[in-house]
Amino acid sequence: MKIDVVSIAKPEKDCYSQLCDHFIKMSKRYAQLEARDLFTAKVTKAQENGPVSAQKIYAELFGPWMERGYTVALDPRGEQMVSETFAQLFVNHSRTTFFIGGAYGHSKEFLQSCDRVVSLSKLTMSHKIAKVVLFEQIYRGLTILEGHPYHK
Question: Can you tell me the distance from the alpha carbon of 95 to that of 144, in angstroms, rounded to the nearest whole number?
């Protein structure tokens, strides 16, 4: 199984990325999990022009990833689920790609083009925290499917 987490973010080596790396390493026994941070000068310029321009660039950058298996966008208005339900996202999918938008989130059109839209919480959190939560839930989901006691 292959799982990609693609986000509009500047690649950084900080405490958050270390936590993500920890869960990536822990997940390796169950799946190939990779993080992809996308950020270009176009993103910076588009974000200066506002939400519509920014969301268009985000969708453009995500474009090549849209054909890579089951697609899941993270959005505050998405479906909230318990960890056991989240784990089911990986059943019957050899490849799953998660999308974390930039400062302006995802456009309505982008969300409609994804197979699923999920919310990690009703709480507002920074992209870095959301990424850590997502990687932990991916690991948790994989252990649930394998019957590993981590979830308990």
Answer: 18
Looking at residues 63-69, what average pLDDT do you find? Answer: 92
Q: How far is CA 92 from CA 1, 87, 95, 125, in A?
A: 10, 11, 9, 30
Tens of pLDDT along 73-101? 999 999 999 999 999 999 999 999 999 99
Q: Which residues contact 138 (CB under 8 A, 6 or more apart)?
A: 3, 5, 23, 27, 33, 98
What pLDDT is stored for residue 87 in this prediction? 97
Residue 112, pLDDT above cutoff 80: yes
How far is CA 26 from each of CA 17, 21, 34, 79, rounded to the nearest angstrom?
Answer: 14, 9, 12, 26
Q: In this structure, what token pair is assigned to residue 49?
A: 């022009």
Distances (CA, A) of 12 to 9, 27, 39, 58, 97: 9, 21, 11, 19, 21
**What is the structure's pLDDT at 4?**
97
Strand partners, 6: 36, 99
Which structure tokens are listed for 23?
């869960």
